[in-house]
Amino acid sequence: MGYLLILLAISFAVSAVGWIYFIYFFSIGYGFSISALAVATALLFYEHLTLPAVLLLGVLFIYGIRLALYLLIRERRSASYKRILYQPSNTTRKPIFVMLMIWISCALLYVGQISPITFYLHNSATGAEVSAVWAWIGAVVATLGVLIEIVADAQKSRAKRINAARFVDDGLYRIVRCPNYFGEVLMWTGSYVITIGAVASAWQWVIASLGYVGIVYVMFSGARRLELRQQENYGSDPAFQAYIKRTPLLLPLVPIYSLAKHSWLKG
What we know:
267 residues; globular; single chain
């Protein structure tokens, strides 16, 4: 249990950037926390690292660093992103208790998200039987998820340079309206898959499952916010209305076209 407390302390320390500006708990604090936890896990169990473990930890490290730096650069350069980031609901001073609860929730969530690979390495180090097959499957799926996210972001940036006022509907966006969010869901699904052949106790299943369910909820909530924002920006465009009627919101081939009415996803 000591290794989890170490990871939790690191998660608290890194995500504390949110005390500068509370939205950072969920953005750059999230990215840097995942990267820091990946490094810490590798250092804690370096004598028991396997190739799939190294691949997954490397993917999580790259994902976190890339996300945090991308958001920092975007905040500096994008006027539209600044308007979203610093809208009144975000700049209103939050009570200390609310800030504390957000900080605790985020730190716990980030540890839960990375816990499957941590349990895999810890259980292997203590002599428990773990599955290299499921570790490889999880690592490959996670890698695919990050690649999808990188490609989706590049395609959106290219499209916006051509026409910043138009919605994006080519490339991966022909398949799903939020391919970057889908890529992240896929990445964490790959990470969670490792638990099938690595988790040795009920409490480990609970922690890993809560982390996975938590981040999937966040992704669906983010997709809903994007849907509402796009409706505000492009809702009067007939081409956009046709696009959202034929293209799933978050999961390819899954006919979920709108989450706007699901207020329980508000986050």
